[in-house]
TrEMBL record:
SUPFAM superfamilies: Families 57/38 glycoside transferase middle domain (SSF88688), Galactose mutarotase-like (SSF74650), Glycoside hydrolase/deacetylase (SSF88713). It catalyses: Hydrolysis of terminal, non-reducing alpha-D-mannose residues in alpha-D-mannosides. This is Alpha-mannosidase. Pfam families: Alpha-mann_mid, Glyco_hydro38C2, Glyco_hydro_38C, Glyco_hydro_38N, Laman-like_dom. Belongs to the glycosyl hydrolase 38 family. Residues 371-445 form the Glycoside hydrolase family 38 central domain. It is an enzyme of class 3 (hydrolase). Its EC number is 3.2.1.-. Keywords: Disulfide bond, Glycoprotein, Glycosidase, Hydrolase, Metal-binding, Signal, Zinc. One of its GO terms (molecular function) is alpha-mannosidase activity.
Amino acid sequence: MVMAMKIRMRKRVVAGVWLVFWLMGIVGVCGKSSSKKSTYIAYNTSHGIVPGKINVHLVPHSHDDVGWLKTVDQYYFGGNNSIRGACVQNVLDSVISALLDDPNRKFIYVEMAFFQRWWRQQSPVIKTKVNGLVNSGQLEFINGGMCMHDEAAAHYIDLIDQTTLGHLFIKDEFNQVPRVGWQIDPFGHSAVQAYLLGAELGFDSLFFARIDYQDRAKRKDGKTLEVVWQGSKSLDSSSQIFTSIFPRHYDPPDGFTFEINDVSPPIQDDPLLFDYNVQERVDDFVAAALSQANVTRTNHIMWAMGTDFRYQYGLSWFRQMDKFIHYVNQDGRVNALYSTPSIYTDAKYAANESWPLKTEDFFPYADRANAYWTGYFTSRPAFKGYVRVLSGYYLAARQLEFFEGRNTLGPNTDALADALAIAQHHDAVSGTQRQHVAADYAKRLAIGYLEAEELVASSLAFLSESKFSSRHGNQVTKFQQAMSFMSRTSSDHCPLLNISYCPPSETALSDGKSLVVLVYNPLAWEREEVVRIPLDLYLCGMSQKISLNDKVSSEWITVQDSGGREIESQLIPISDISLSARNYFVKSYLGRSPGSTPLYWLAFQVSVPPLGYSTYSVTSAKQRAAKLSEIRTFQEETDTAIEVGRGSLKLLYSANGKLTRYVNRRSSVTACAEQAYFYYSGHDGNDSDHQASGAYVFRPNGIFAIKPVNQASLSVMRGLILDEVHQQLNPWIYQITRVYKGKEHAEVEFSVGPIPVDDGIGKEIVTRITTAMKTNRTFYTDSNGRDFIKRVRDYRSDWDLQVTQPVAGNYYPINLGIYIEDGNMELSVLVDRSVGGSSLTDGQIELMLHRRLLHDDIRGVGEVLNEEVCAHDECEGLVVRGKYYVRIDPIGEGAKWRRTAGQEIYSPLLLAFTEQDGNNWMNSHLSTFSAMEASYSLPKNVALITLQELENGKVLVRLAHLYEIGEDKDFSKMARVELKKMFREKKIARVTEMSLSANQERAEMGKKKLSWKVEACRGEGPKAVRGGSVDPVKLVVELAPMEIRTFLIDFEILQLFGS
Ligand SMILES: [Zn+2]
């Protein structure tokens, strides 16, 4: 009752108010009927740059993640909208129509993965119209790779490949060459991005948002948000790029966002409607512009008009920008215009300003005091490993595709190329996507791999049969691959070899047959390595596992090279932990039990020519044999040091199983060295700062040593080829250290997980190698696997660092390796995937290997990083298995190993298997092959990083100098490659040097290059050296330190190898 009365009373009051307004309205309309008209307004949006005024460049854009909370396809077609209402198809449809409505409107598009999806479904009429928009500059492709790639956890070869894929699409469809880098979202920025994926692409400028909050504050104060960035000390000013860092983020100033549900007040300019606000909004605009102009040099400022997945109804933005441009320019205090980053760049260039110089990179990135985005360097380590393995495989598969001849209809590498490109996205290889999206990336990779695997099998069969048969595409040899047991049609590389699962090698020795192992080397220099394959000796006539205590040199297996010479081989028992991992993961990944169980690894030394293969046969023999490793398990009572290693390198372990000493007899290096595991407990954000450790952010809350449960459990297996040290540290960390007779580094294979979290605490697992070296707070980490950058603990060269996170703030991304040095020696650690790492005290190197966390770190992903594997109706934490490689060299000699071994780790030998009766296969096939001229090999400071036949029949070749200036006394020199000798049996007709992404001739790119002025801050040093132009007759390519040169080659006769 009481309620009802109140409502009635209020109604009466409201009615009274309305009456007053109504009367005022009548008075108003009658009094000013001539000026208050509502009519069509032709907004003048045609303004260009006005000299002498502050020019506000409005750059309409949509930041479209190629997968993050949803999969790339879900984002494209608008699926799974309960997670996020995002549909890129809407963005492109509505933007194109808005651009067609007004020729002054502009838009930039960045991610070709989305644009391709849209483009292939457009009608010829729309395609013609869009071509018109692109040609007029209304629609501009910038960045132009398949995705906006991550800059911390991606390898430079992947970055080049994914950018090339997008750039060639743009070139083919639109004949356009992107000229701007747009890396607005990645979480920190790499030196390689600046010089290689920037300047060397022919980009004139680079834009991004995320830099350290302390750095940004200083740059705003000093107007140094815009710089000339020289990312490479070797290429120096010959490879610099104008770089613009946004003052805040990649969205417009507050109050200027206009997606349909946004809260910014739109301009209301109909005088007949209430809330007319033109002057108020113009004032807001001018104020925001002046505020930005205060931190920016020259009178050009840019507003990034858009943010994540905006312009789903594009007109809602363009309508407002039309009005702002119209009214702000009528007002006249500042000038507003539709623009693009290219127009902005040209305006900056025309201002003829000198810019501050920036060197090195922008890692690590913190957006607040306790929020260092250094956890993602390691997040999802298994996925990071998968990306890296397939990256190397893709490089090899393209070579083999070229040797056989590209076949668009048959199996090819296109699907793998596409999957790898998408996997470089800044929420993909970074490990910062949701779990179902991570699964989607992995599924795409697996599909791409399966097709590439078929191609590899067919190419190897073609090469090995070509001398003996004129048939093409009708090979007899069926190379077995590990995953192919499902189809039983093709060949291998054994992707599950890391869990000792390789059905082809396990089964082929039955019925008196022998196993042919073809070993392909994708590197353009000869290599000698040890390969290991799991063997099932039951099938070789052995009725039981040889007892671990048997001192046997039982004669069961023999390995011969292609000349029939027996070579040294060694049997190593497969550890029980490996076998249980094998059973568990084969069941969970493949949905079936692995069948019989191999008991041994067979290891043998192979020697493989450059860009070619060798073959070996493995036979069960009564007489001669692989020697079984001698096995000793050391228990607590051992009181003498244990020495491991049969060649130059010896590792010494104490009686209680701890590594104590590293000795290299050849180089006379002796060092005390220890290695141990620790975990950081992930902060739960339960304090005054709610920042937790999560997918992006590393915020440790204490460090704890992981003490070996069983103090002295150390098993050593010694043999003619390698020694292995097995250590079970606790129920979830197992480690095997291998020392090869012919190598001077130690290979450490770790198996970490499931990380226990029953105590409610997330954990981040690290390994530390500790020496007594005095390293003066200094260490070196690579940039995307290429240049090494000097890091100094608790120090930044660009500002006075306020240390808030002494661990997380000293973490850096590692793709190739990390090293430290004192005056006498250098300790290097190389990795098999991207990880985070540091040197937190002198003489020590730390790598983060795995993370399992229980809290979201509030950066948008909205899920905890708690990876699990489900099998047998149960889920448990993910186990990560990987390798790192350790070596200590005399000072000045480490680079040779880091560069050569780094390349070998990236491009492992590819193994394929088939079986034969007697010597049948060997006698009827080409058992060794090299694509290059006999005895030719690339110099050791050059790698062939691309050899690929393009759709148009041209062949794309990239050569990379592997050393920086001053890095090595022998190899930091001009290198020469004789192209003619690289292609035996093929005659080169024409060689054209191209930009890095092969979308324009290098000479053209050079002519267009802008020459930015740098503030005088140092003397004019010597100009960076570069290789000279290629003589069309001699065809010798020169490469200066760190130079990568890209060529398109036409061959005279498209005759195939061997045919
Ligand atoms: Zn993003």
